[in-house]
Structures are given as structure tokens and as C-alpha cells.
Amino acid sequence: TALYYQVVQCYSPHIIAEQLFGHTHYDEFALYYHSNVKNTDSAVLTTLIGPSITPYTDLNPGSWSVFDPETYVADMSKAAT
Q1: What is the pTM of this model?
Q2: Alpha-carbon gap, residue 30 to 46, rounded angstroms
Q3: Partner residues linked to 31 by β-bridges
């Protein structure tokens, strides 16, 4: 992971503008900092971590924007009955 952090620090925010991750159980976000100094001046990138991501084909607007994100939850014990 140290190499990954070096790549993120080197190429953010101009090449790596945002990171989108999925498969967690909550809506979350993460912040990346330059040289592990955690203050507002050294923040270089945010990461949005969604509980699920579904890739659809031919729907890439090329705008680098996330449009209308929605999160759904279900009580699986109730759904199984």
C-alpha cells in the first residue's frame, strides 16, 4: 500500500481526480494526504466508497461527475420471508 499512496500523491489531483470504490457496507469516504501529514493544507484527494457499484455499458458521460447517487438498504431477514 505504500507504493499505492505514492502514486496517488504523485498524480493527484490533476491526473487522478477522484477515486470511486465499492463493496463496503456503508456509504463512506476517505481522504488522502501528502506525506501523511493530516491537515487541511495537505489533503490531496477524496475517495467515495459506496456500498455497491453496478457498471452499465455505454453510459460514460465523460464529465468526471457523479450524477444522482442513490443507496438502498434491505433487511434480508424480512426479505427472505
Answers
A1: 0.55
A2: 6
A3: 46
Residue 55's closest CA among 20, 25, 29?
Answer: 20
Spatial separation of the C-alpha atoms in residues 53 and 17, rounded to whole Å: 19
In angstroms, the Cα distances linking 23 to 18, 47, 51, 61 are 17, 13, 5, 23
70 neighbors 43 (Cβ within 8 angstroms): no
Handedness of CA 21, 24, 29, 35 (dihedral sign): negative
pLDDT digits (tens, 9 = 90+) for 4-55: 888 888 888 888 888 888 777 677 888 888 877 888 888 888 888 876 655 6
Neighbours of 13 (CB within 10 A): 13
Q: How far apart are CA 79 and CA 81, in angstroms?
A: 6
Question: Alpha helix locations (H) across 1-81?
Answer: 2-11, 76-79
